[in-house]
Amino acid sequence: EFREDLLELFSEFDTRGTGMVTVDAFEKHLKAKNGKLQAQLGLLGLPVNGAANFFRVVEVLCRDGRLCNEKEANILSLVDSCMQLKGQASNLHLQWVVGDLAH
Question: What are phi and psi of 65, to 5 degrees?
Answer without folding.
Answer: -60, -20
